[in-house]
């Protein structure tokens, strides 16, 4: 059985970065960077505050036009207005890009950009940075990269007489896109452009984003070079964001000793760096990832209270409680199927945390349970019955059908975005444990439901996070780690089932119909689908 916490992508390489003009002498963490960076300095800079983007005062007519666009409620109105009322002020088109993003219509961005080209307007850095920023928000990375190269590398649609180069905000935006994709090679390319080609000094935001890229790609060597650079640059402040970003690199790379050494270094009096709950949660996650569960419990029970004496840390943080519950799940995962007493102990510990700490009021009122926590609850029963998965069916059905204590939105069905009438089995965000269980459960006990929902056609499974979610490319075909995990599961069945990629949606895979027909014919309903070893 595949690990509930197995990293989906691992890349080991040694990358040497050369910095000019000064020679060096001396993110699953994206959520943290989003909260700490975008809400403060980066968001302000993109909006043009603090002198990062030079603002020009537009004429009154342009201000009125911008205000009108901000009030529009459909993209058709915006495009029609821009076509019928052409403007020579790029700020009008900047506002249009932003408004379309607010309306959740990023596919219209190319039309707005094309209208600027038709007007033969000279682009400015404010428009370029904002456009690249919103493309990154909507994961339009191919177009983002193409426009960056057009504007700044090939100098298309920009001034031929006035130097037009990217600034630190531009490069940081591109690196952030690489962080989402887990593309460390492209991120290093942008970082070298910043330092070597444009002679710009990376700021704290850029370096922290680079550390996030390295964490997502498990590239510790490059991260340590960047970290050393940050320490030796006087203008870069090593703060809680920086230290947590580097700790996250070690956590993702399963380098627990280096992670703890850096934490201890940061707490020494002579170079003290204040930390917070996110820092401690990063440590706990790293220890879990490295299978050091007992060390994680010790850190929570003994070290965090000590750290809270000189740091602003809420020891009752829900992150800590959630990680404790995950620790017991991980313990169950590591145990042998015959160690029933230990499995029962950790299962009970998980339930105690779930119902007494995470959701303490389920006996008093109807409580809404987060779907991710619901999946963990399901996994706890699957792991409890790892000797025979069928024994978990009754418990899982009871949890999903229970109405009196709590409500939830957990569901393995979703609608195909390319065909609104087509349902899919959505294992996109599920762990391998729950994915494998529900595949067995549906194919063993819910065959009629599958035939009805798929109209006797191929059974379709959504098993990729998206086009840019650390996908492994094999023979030109996008292959997500989830798809590989499902393939390995089907190899364990009495009748192995092959997967075929859907012709309309690359994130969807179809169960081979001949294999499914043979499986239904030879394996009776209710009989264990797994091979007898």
UniProtKB/TrEMBL annotation:
Pfam families: PPR_2
UniProt cross-references to InterPro entries, sorted A to Z: Mito_RNA-Proc/Resp (IPR051240), PPR_rpt (IPR002885), TPR-like_helical_dom_sf (IPR011990)
PPR repeats, residue ranges: 167-202
MF-aspect GO terms: mRNA binding
Keywords for this protein: Repeat
NCBIfam families: PPR
Protein name: Pentacotripeptide-repeat region of PRORP domain-containing protein
Protein species of origin: Reticulomyxa filosa
């Amino acid at each position: 059985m595949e690990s509930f916490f197995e990293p989906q992508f691992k890349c080991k390489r040694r990358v040497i970065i050369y910095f000019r003009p000064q020679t060096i002498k001396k993110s699953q963490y994206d959520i943290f960077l989003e909260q700490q960076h975008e809400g403060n300095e980066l968001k302000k800079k993109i909006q043009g505050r603090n002198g990062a983007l030079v603002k020009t005062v537009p004429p009154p007519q342009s201000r009125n036009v911008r205000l009108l666009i901000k009030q529009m409620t459909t993209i058709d109105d915006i495009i029609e207005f821009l076509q019928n009322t052409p403007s020579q002020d790029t700020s009008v088109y900047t506002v249009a890009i932003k408004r379309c993003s607010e309306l959740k219509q990023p596919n219209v961005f190319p039309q707005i950009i094309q209208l600027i080209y038709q007007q033969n307007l000279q682009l400015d850095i404010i428009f370029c940075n904002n456009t690249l920023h919103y493309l990154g928000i909507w994961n339009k990375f191919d177009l983002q990269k193409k426009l960056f190269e057009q504007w700044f590398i090939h100098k298309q649609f920009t001034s031929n007489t006035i130097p037009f180069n990217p600034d630190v905000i531009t490069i940081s935006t591109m690196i952030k896109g690489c962080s989402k994709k887990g593309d460390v090679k492209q991120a290093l390319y942008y970082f070298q452009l910043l330092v070597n080609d444009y002679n710009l000094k990376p700021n704290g935001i850029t370096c922290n984003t680079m550390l996030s890229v390295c964490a997502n790609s498990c590239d510790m060597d490059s991260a340590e070079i960047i970290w050393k650079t940050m320490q030796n640059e006087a203008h870069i402040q090593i703060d809680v964001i920086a230290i947590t970003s580097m700790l996250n690199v070690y956590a993702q790379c399963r380098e627990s000793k280096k992670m703890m050494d850096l934490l201890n270094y940061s707490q020494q009096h002579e170079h003290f760096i204040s930390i917070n709950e996110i820092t401690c949660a990063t440590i706990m996650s790293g220890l879990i990832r490295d299978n050091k569960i007992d060390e994680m419990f010790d850190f929570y029970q003994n070290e965090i209270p000590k750290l809270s004496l000189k740091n602003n840390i809420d020891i009752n943080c829900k992150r800590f409680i959630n990680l404790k519950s995950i620790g017991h799940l991980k313990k169950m995962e590591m145990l042998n199927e015959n160690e029933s007493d230990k499995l029962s102990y950790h299962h009970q510990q998980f339930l105690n945390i779930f119902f007494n700490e995470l959701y303490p009021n389920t006996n008093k009122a109807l409580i809404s349970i987060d779907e991710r926590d619901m999946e963990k609850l399901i996994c706890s029963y699957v792991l409890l019955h790892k000797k025979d998965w069928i024994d978990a069916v009754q418990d899982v059905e009871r949890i999903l059908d229970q109405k009196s204590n709590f409500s939830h939105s957990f569901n393995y069905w979703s609608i195909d975005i390319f065909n609104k009438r087509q349902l899919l089995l959505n294992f996109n965000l599920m762990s391998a444990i729950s994915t494998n269980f529900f595949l067995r459960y549906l194919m063993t006990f819910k065959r009629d439901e599958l035939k009805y929902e798929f109209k006797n056609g191929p059974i379709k499974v959504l098993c990729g996070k998206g086009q840019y979610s650390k996908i492994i490319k094999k023979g030109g075909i996008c292959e997500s780690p989830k798809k590989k995990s499902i393939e390995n599961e089907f190899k364990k069945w009495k009748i192995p089932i092959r997967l075929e990629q859907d012709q309309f949606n690359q994130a969807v895979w179809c169960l081979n119909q001949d294999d499914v027909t043979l499986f239904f014919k030879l394996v009776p309903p209710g009989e264990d689908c797994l091979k007898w070893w």
